[in-house]
Amino acid sequence: MPDCITRRRLLATAVGQSAFALFAVDIARASSGAEPSAGRPPIIVDSHVHLKHGDAARTEYSARAIVEVMDAVGIHRSVVFAMSTTTQRSIEMARQAAEEFPGRLIPYVYALPHYERPVIREIEAALDTGLFRGIKIHAGECTLAEYVVDPVLKLAGRRGVPCLIDCLGNVGVARRMAESFPDTRLIVAHMGRYLARDEKLVDQFIELAERHPNVFLDTSGVVLVRKITEAVSRLGSGRLIWGTDGPHPQPDLVAFARAELEKIRSLPITDEDKARILGRNILELLKL
Ligand SMILES: [Zn+2]
């Protein structure tokens, strides 16, 4: 039913566009470097959203579902990507999402080696479009050994795009990447490890960021919330980046994202620090 599809697409676009219009002025102000502290609410950017997750079910969420959560929570823009699939398919999924909601969704390409073709060319082609602003890498699906990941990190440095990397708590691997590629900005997912309760491990990642100015810490999936405050005092708020790692169905999609936002809003840090973590840092990194 082409008519239905067209109508649904139009509706989706209308929802996204009208909501976006409300935020467009704020986004323009943020991009122009205007002071956010002049009584205006800061731009909220979720820098870690899955079109396809790495869970056992490889759960997918539509662009529309993601934007509905954003609208309900007050998130202006989101970085989206797919994993648990090939680099090529991740590009298709993220491009479709970004085209469906222009200005709201910012696509990353997923780097996953392939036996039949060199994915580095696919990543380059995606970056060439100007639509893709970063690269997602996950140690759960490929090794971060130098012979696999280095060409990707080198390309990211050359092209000035950040890599959002889940290194599954392996600080040695993260250190090698940070040292070997000082010109590549590495956003370490979950401040090191998803749902980590090991304070010493989180400390090691904060220390890594202290030593390497190219390392940024993603606050999604961080349950030792006081460590975020500690990281702000040790690194400055410019090195922390907020994301939800959503959508997540518990307790429900909106409540989950709202709780992640509240996690940062309730920190004992300044409003200026919160504004940086919740949006300004990632917009700067992505040159948006
Ligand atoms: Zn994730």
Walkthrough of the structure:
- Strands 1-2-3-4-5-6-7-8 form an eight-stranded parallel β-sheet.
- The chain has ten helices and eight strands.
- About 50% of the residues lie in helices and about 15% in strands.
- The protein is of the alpha/beta class and about 290 residues long.
- It has helices at about 1-30, 65-75, 85-100, 120-130, 145-160, 170-180, 200-210, 225-235, 255-265, 270-285, and strands at about 45-50, 75-80, 105-110, 135-140, 165, 185-190, 215-220, 240.
- The chain has a single domain (about 1-35, about 45-285), classed as Metal-dependent hydrolases (TIM Barrel).
- Strand 3, helix 4 (about 120-130) and strand 4 form a beta-alpha-beta unit.
- The structure holds zinc ion.
- The site of zinc ion (ZN) has 3 residues, from strand 1.
In short:
The protein has about 290 residues and is of the alpha/beta class. It has 10 helices and 8 strands. The protein has an 8-stranded parallel sheet with strand order 1-2-3-4-5-6-7-8.
How is the CATH topology named? TIM Barrel
Give the amount of beta strand, in percent: 5-15%
Task: Provide the succession of SSEs.
Answer: HEHEHEHEHEHEHEHEHH
- How many helices? The count is 10
Key features?
288 residues, TIM Barrel, globular, binds zinc ion
Outline the secondary-structure elements.
Blueprint: H1 2-31, E1 45-52, H2 63-73, E2 77-82, H3 87-100, E3 105-110, H4 119-128, E4 134-138, H5 146-159, E5 163-166, H6 171-180, E6 186-188, H7 199-211, E7 215-218, H8 226-235, E8 240-241, H9 253-265, H10 271-285
Parallel strand pairs: 1-2, 2-3, 3-4, 4-5, 5-6, 6-7, 7-8
Helix pairs in contact: 2-9, 4-5, 6-7, 7-8
The structure holds zinc ion (ZN).
